[in-house]
Write a structure and sequence with these properties.
Helix content is 42%, strand content 18%. By secondary structure, the protein is of the alpha/beta class. The protein has two domains: 30-111 and 217-317, Periplasmic binding protein-like II (D-Maltodextrin-Binding Protein, domain 2), CATH 3.40.190; 113-212, Periplasmic binding protein-like II (D-Maltodextrin-Binding Protein, domain 2, 3-Layer(aba) Sandwich). Helix 2 (45-52) packs across helix 11 (254-265) and helix 8 (192-200) runs antiparallel to helix 12. It is globular, with a radius of gyration of 24 Å. The chain starts with 6 loop residues before the first helix and ends in a 23-residue tail after the last helix.
């Protein structure tokens, strides 16, 4: 028996097939819990830009952002299995050395100009030399900000009573403002945005940015939990692609990026605009770990006596396996 398929029958069949396909559930997005060591950090803004403008969505990633008060607490969350990707300071690679189940996967910025030392309106300081013997606010013991005070002492050769003193106040600019106002601290090391905020409020000013005394270093770094690396290495690659696509988007979309940055960090548009103008071109665009930046970190571990072995093999603390190609 000959079966004759009419055009109408064929079209009906195609329509039915399409209906079945459309009814199938879409491939579920890969959920990544991404932790920021500090919320109010311009170096972390590309994450929010990528989330807001669908850059991670296009790569099949669903991002859950989690904010912490310092790199130590973020490392603890990674160890507890509560975070998949961490955005933190390069000095936090020390936690990898000490056994934290994570590895550095990309340099996000290797320019110390993201960080600065600010003073209150009552301060008479005019330059770096005026920080001798001063109490300087830092986020936590062993943090990037703590290391920056230690490095200041080493760069200037200050010892004994001349040494600048790191004082732990937490990771919030609000804590820095309060400490400067009460005199609990005489300066604060943090994002240069703190200084810009103080200036806008006529409550202080940015004294210096840290590139004045710190050479190139892996200042901001992305970390991945070893569990994620083993279970879903492609998700690590896609996250980094999304990150660097977000950086590229920011560079060509200032009008969209600045208002979002202001909202995310709680800054005024004026401060966010200033951050954009001074720092946007200082983000890494390829994530590579440069020899000089890594050596600065190694030397810092030795200087602060946070490791026993001065010949530490830094290559074991990071990987380039997941960086975007080309």
């Amino acid at each position: 028996m000959t079966c004759i398929i009419t055009r109408r029958t064929a079209l009906a069949g195609i329509a039915g097939s399409l209906a079945v396909l459309s009814a199938l559930p879409a491939k579920a997005a890969t959920k990544l819990r991404v932790g920021k060591s500090v919320a109010e950090n311009w170096g972390n803004v590309p994450l929010d830009v990528g989330m807001q403008f669908g850059i991670f969505d296009k790569l099949g990633l669903e991002i859950e952002e989690i904010n912490f008060a310092g790199g130590a607490k973020l490392a603890q969350a990674v160890t507890a299995g509560e975070v998949d990707i961490g955005l933190s300071g390069g000095p936090d690679m020390l936690y990898v050395f000490k056994g934290a189940p994570e590895i550095a996967i990309a340099t996000l910025a290797d320019n110390p100009a993201f960080m600065g030392i600010s003073v209150g309106s009552q301060s008479t300081a005019r330059g770096i030399d005026d920080l001798k013997g001063k109490k300087i606010g830092v986020t936590s013991q062993g943090s990037t900000t703590y290391w920056l005070v230690d490095q200041l002492n080493r760069a200037k050769g200050w010892k004994g009573a001349d040494m600048a003193i790191p004082v732990v106040i937490g990771g919030s600019p609000t804590a820095a403002f309060a400490g400067l106002k009460t005199g609990d601290i005489e300066a604060d090391v943090g994002g240069t945005s703190t200084g810009y905020q103080l200036e806008e409020q006529k409550a202080g000013r940015l004294l210096i940015d840290c590139s004045e005394y710190v050479p190139s270093m892996s200042l901001y770094v992305a970390f991945a939990s070893t569990a994620l690396v083993k279970q879903n290495p492609n998700a690590v690659r896609e996250f980094l692609k999304g990150w660097f696509d977000s950086v590229a988007f920011m560079k060509s979309h200032k009008a969209e990026s600045v208002p979002l940055a202001a909202k995310v960090m709680g800054y005024t548009p004026g401060v966010a605009d200033r951050m954009y103008e001074t720092l946007m071109n200082k983000f890494s665009t390829d994530g590579k770990f440069t020899p000089q930046a890594i050596e600065t970190l190694r030397a810092s571990f030795v200087d602060m006596k946070t490791i026993d072995n001065p010949s530490i093999d830094m290559s074991k603390l990071y990987t380039t396996e997941f960086l975007p190609k080309g």
